Amino acid sequence: MLNFSAIALFDLLARRLTHAFSTIPDFTDWLVVALLVLVYSAIALPIGFSSGFLKVDVQTSQPIIAGVLAGCLLSPGLTEEVFFRVLMLPHPFENASGLMLWFWGCSSLLLFVVYHPLNALTFYPVGRSTFMNPVFLLLAAVLGVACSIAYLQSGSIWPAVVIHWLGVTVWLLLLGGYRKLYG
User: How many structural domains does the chain have?
Assistant: First the structure.
């Protein structure tokens, strides 16, 4: 039988999910997304190219492009954003203190980064060498910060999903990610 605290936690998580999916981002939210994408690019591209982790490698196969565009929306886009942002971070309706936002923000970011090598060791072995690469993990951390800011600022899952989806699809289709993972 569920106790009171388990019911309260379930209720909180259900409200977070409902609010995150039903909140429609406004124009300002999308401007923040554009700014975050620019800042992420300004950080990730120099680090990625100077380390050799990124290289221009354009995928031209229509089935690959379609698969990546659609597949990355579901995973990692929606699945990871639901878990690492929506369920872990206080939604703006909760009026969490700055200290709580920092605590949960840092906790979710740490789990987001650690999740990638653990995923490669268990369910996604094709990603093993990539997901354990320190440059990949650094870029994932910066992406996680951008997604967290977008979610906390908007209260909607959609800006974070767009940032995550865009970052992963550009990497896979234009910057060598597909070849790194699949040869």
Answer: 1
pTM of the full structure: 0.96
Tokens of 26: 């406004």
User: What is the per-residue pLDDT across 171-181, written as a single tens digit (0 to 9) for each?
Assistant: 999 999 999 99
CB 120 within 8 A of CB 128: yes
Residue-averaged pLDDT of the chain = 96
SS3 175: strand
Host domain of residue 95: 4-182
| Closest to 79 (Cα-Cα) out of 17, 11, 15, 155 | 17
Which residue carries 């923000």 as its tokens? Answer: 105
Output the CA torsion sign for 124, 83, 153, 29.
positive
Q: Residue 83: CB partners within 8 Å, gap ≥ 6?
A: none
